[in-house]
Design goal:
Largest sheet: 7 strands, antiparallel
Helix content: 10-25%
Strand content: 25-35%
Mean pLDDT: 91
Low-confidence stretches: 242-254
Number of helices: 6
Distance between the termini: 29 Å
Length: 254
């Protein structure tokens, strides 16, 4: 399993987002408090952001954050108005490599998965010409999302459509997605935990609170959270009623 967060708002340093919180990603990697599956997330970590000009970029490494001697310096020097961070607990049988570590990017978007899915059951969803960068399930999921975004779907529609297609054939999937285009953040709860905090300078969406303050709002399961400059919107999610159905009906995202 994994822990992840996304910040959207005024520029904050990576150090402020990752190392300064009393229960930030390093502690969530070693001892998560809300995680429902497994107990550690020390198989890799990454951070992605959107520079003032150019495509989304990411910094990914295997192993725990504290094992990387370069990241504290980077974290103190870098900042962003849209930042996605993640720590990874690899599912059994999945490779431990940088290419299997979130956040994944196609240049315009960042994606992290807190969960798991069956690649075998969902392989038919992969279109010709697309190839995941790793054999892990999260990289496969990222490629399925890139397909839909390449077809011109809005981010929230593409995420909801993908979740519905997967759960139609894989009832055991755990799909807490966190995706962003630098302007919006779209997150889902499907089998794992999520919360958010709204502050005067932005919104922080995370697998679990980064501190013990009482202003965190917990998100119910099977919800989609959409955050942008206008605020936070929460919409219900439901599984596809018919096996293999791949289009979102008006009754799915109310």
């Amino acid at each position: 399993m994994c822990r992840h967060f996304a910040w959207l708002g005024q520029d904050r340093s990576f150090d402020e987002l990752i190392f300064q919180p009393s229960y930030g990603l390093p502690r969530q990697a070693a001892r998560p408090r809300w995680q429902q599956i497994d107990l550690v997330n020390r198989d890799g970590f990454g951070v992605g952001w959107f520079p003032a000009e150019g495509h989304a970029v990411s910094y990914r490494r295997t192993g725990p954050i504290e094992a990387d001697p370069d990241f504290p310096t980077l974290a103190s020097e870098m900042s962003g108005g849209c930042v996605l961070g993640a720590v990874r607990g690899a599912s059994p049988g999945m490779p431990i490599e940088e290419a299997a570590t979130a956040p994944f990017t196609n240049g315009a978007y960042l994606l992290s998965l807190n969960g798991h899915l069956s690649v075998e059951k969902t392989l038919h969803l992969l279109e010709p010409g697309y190839e995941p960068e790793s054999t892990c399930d999260a990289a496969f999921l990222a490629t399925l999302l890139w397909q839909r975004l390449d077809q011109g779907r809005p981010l929230e529609l593409a995420v909801g459509e993908l979740l519905r297609d997967i759960t139609a054939v894989d009832s055991h999937a755990c799909l807490n997605l966190l995706a962003t285009d630098g302007v919006r953040v779209v997150a889902t709860t499907w089998g794992e935990t999520l919360c958010y905090r709204v502050s005067p300078d932005g919104v922080l969406i995370a697998s679990e609170p980064h501190d013990d303050e009482d202003d965190w709002i917990r998100v119910e399961d099977r919800r989609m959270v959409i955050a942008d400059a206008f605020g936070v919107d929460i919409q219900p999610l439901e599984p596809a009623p018919v096996l293999g159905l791949s289009a979102l009906g008006d009754d799915i995202l109310a």
